[in-house]
Amino acid sequence: MSYSADQGEKVELKKTIGLFGGVSLIIGVIVGSGIFVSPKGVTQEVGSVGLSLIIWVVCGILSIFGAQTYAELGCMIPKAGGDYEYIMTAFGSLYGFLFVWSQLIIIIPTANAVAALTFADYILQPIYPSCDAPLAMRVLLANGASQLG
């Protein structure tokens, strides 16, 4: 059923999120693709699977502290805009503006590139099991993945 302006009813999104949506959002934002990149490096550097699991648990606890901080900020500053609003309220509009531009120009594209290259590495691993995949293959596959995603 579609609504028209002459009926006098306003169409808007519901400002609610359920348990499944909230958990999915948290997993997608916090975990991301980093969980697929970092275990190999952590295990190589510490030399022990047990110690790498301890490091993983400690980092998980730190992530919980970060999530609680964002929940507190969300309660204290109930405005739409997330990080931008928090920085603008705490430090002023210049820093909020610089934050948004750094997100737009550097942080988000870099995170997307890392996710795409990680995807390419995992896809090419069975094809090149005993050596690194050629850089051109990695870049082309990552570029294709980022264009589709």
Furnish the topology, listing elements before pairings.
Layout: H1 19-31, H2 34-46, H3 49-76, H4 83-91, H5 93-124, H6 135-148
Helix pairs in contact: 2-3, 4-5, 5-6
Question: Care to describe what's here?
Answer:
This protein is mostly helical and 149 residues long. 73% of the residues lie in helices and 0% in strands. It contains six helices and no strands. The relative contact order is 0.06.
Q: Judging from the principal axes of the Cα atoms, what is the shape?
A: extended
Our measurement of the CA-to-CA distance between the termini, rounded to an integer number of angstroms, reads: 31 Å
The overall pLDDT, averaged over residues, is: 79
Strand element count: 0
Low-confidence stretches: none
Question: What is the H/E string?
Answer: HHHHHH
Roughly how much helix do the residues carry, as a percent range?
A: over 70%
Descriptive tags:
149 residues; mainly alpha; 0% strand
Outline of this structure?
By secondary structure, this protein is mainly α.
